[in-house]
Amino acid sequence: MKSSVPLLDTIMTYIVKRKGKQVRPMFVFLSAQVFQGVNESTYRGASLVELLHTATLVHDDVVDDSDERRGFFSINALWKNKIAVLVGDYLLSRGLLLAVKNKDFLLLEIVSDAVRAMSEGELLQIEKTRNLNLSEEVYYDIIRKKTASLIAACCSIGAASAGATNDETEKMKMFGEKIGVAFQIKDDLLDYGDDDIGKPTGIDLKEKKLTLPIIYTINNTDRSTRSYIINSIKNHNTNKKRIAEVIKLVNEHKGIDYAKKKMEDYKNDALEILNSVSNNGSATNLKMLVEYIIDRNH
Questions:
Q1: Is the pTM of the predicted complex or chain greater than 0.90?
Q2: Residue 290 lies inside a defined structural domain of this protein
Q3: Does 261 reside within a domain?
Q4: What is the pLDDT of residues 265-280, one digit of tens each?
Q5: What is the CATH number of the domain that holds 86?
Q6: 11-25, 169-183, 265-279: lowest mean pLDDT where?
Q7: Structural domains counted in the chain
Q8: Cβ pair 289, 30 in contact under 8 A
Q9: pLDDT at 261 over 50
């Protein structure tokens, strides 16, 4: 990630030192282990995924006007939006060049398709949540595009890099998509937790984001409660007391329990797919990673 431009070099050092859990590259490596094992192509695939994922995060912080990322100042908070957008573009270009120079065209196609889906998901969310009237079906469509598409790409990249057949690669993609949906539902649930979860409780509601617990509650309550919740999110989203009352209502109406059950259903569906691909113990570590992302508290 070295650059001849001093400012860019400084920012790259800042990004690299503050990397996150790197769950997505782990999905690449552990998916490769299910087949013929990790090789140089797998390492490039994992690097490609992390570069493009980091690029999208830098751009997301600009879009969301967010000052914080992973407990540290975001790039746009320290160096302003223009530089953050250019840094995101630079990260994207480094990922593309890594794949092209090594002729990893299949891996590049998989990731590029995921980035397309992620962009569509973001725009779909903006379009559909403006009036705070989101169905469960649309919610799943959004998170399949926004979150699950990249995890699906990670699993198919790992498989493809390790010599899996087209059918096996497609199954690993489906496994990754199911896990990606469960991953996002878990993220939604963290917004209602009491622990130190890496983001303040209720932040999704403050940002007027409709997640599964709140969608279920809105669609399964009386008109008065529904109006109160929607009015609170729309017009009183910075009022801590009102947001706390909404969180309480979500708990009382079993929105949390419903989301947890859906998360478990997606996880179990994913593990069924994985078992159909590998039942010889080579997927043990991948299954452990799945359990980790479901049980995590941040």
A1: no
A2: no
A3: yes
A4: 999 999 999 998 876 6
A5: 1.10.600.10
A6: 11-25
A7: 1
A8: yes
A9: yes
